[in-house]
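If you are new to this repository, start here. Below is one unmodified record pulled from the training split, so you can see the exact layout before writing a loader.
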Amino acid sequence: MSSPSSSHLASPPPLSDGLSRSAVVTALRGSGCVFAEDEAELLFSTAATPADLAAMVARRTAGQPLEHVLGWAEFGGLRISVDPGVFVPRRRTEFLLGQAVDLVRRSAARTGRGTVAVDLCCGSGAVGAALAAAVDGVELSAADIEPAAVRCARRNVAAAGGQVYEGDLFAPLPARLRGRIDVLVANVPYVPTEEVGLLPPEAREYEPLVALDGGADGLDVLRRVTAEAPQWLAPGGHLLVETSELQAPRAVETFVRNGLPPRVATCDERYATVVIGTRPDSREPDGPGAAKTG
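And here is the target side for that same chain:
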């Protein structure tokens, strides 16, 4: 489920219990929801009672993200729990997931064992949960600095037997993971500070700032992750970071400076850019290159 584009320009009509589909569609459309019919169907299928439906419609027409109202988002073929105040997984990030799944499978074939994977800046844990669901034998750990995100992620990765830790980047991870991570995904915040105010209201008003603001040029957190990642990656292990197309050249420079020969993968359909760096392994050299998908 992609996050609907909305522009809340006018007050919606008042609502009451026993709402009809047409009344819900009218209310959603009146508040600026572009995909009013689709959203109405989701609200009707999720609400347990007419009173629940009325409350959900009221929250949505007030501007709350649809995923927060529903309590879930579709991501990577899974229904991911998303609590209020937690970053909503974006459909573009499914491209990052696809790249990670491919590398996990390659890693398992190369090493002949289960893959150690970490989802850093995990938010709801969507990437880690979908990764473990796609490939058997993944030893999954995840971490986030936001307590609400950690609580949410723990529910989402429970089926995979994953562990979620609360803290700043690598700090809360257990020492046993140092030098053992085969695939490290980090969906870091990468919006430049001055551009946060230009984000849609759903993001800037209802999602945590720490999950959006990437510093002056949007690359502050990426630089921190890339600097420390070589200490945590196994030989031949991979770091995958989502960024923007404009930021990719500077991100690549950062990877190179930290000894992680990079390549850039892009998907035009999803407007997605992922930088993938690899810790050198004498048994399997991996130099920089470029890949384009989609």
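Two things worth knowing about this chain: The chain has ten helices and ten strands. The beta strands are 72-75, 78-81, 116-120, 139-144, 163-166, 181-186, 233-243, 262-267, 272-278, 289-293.
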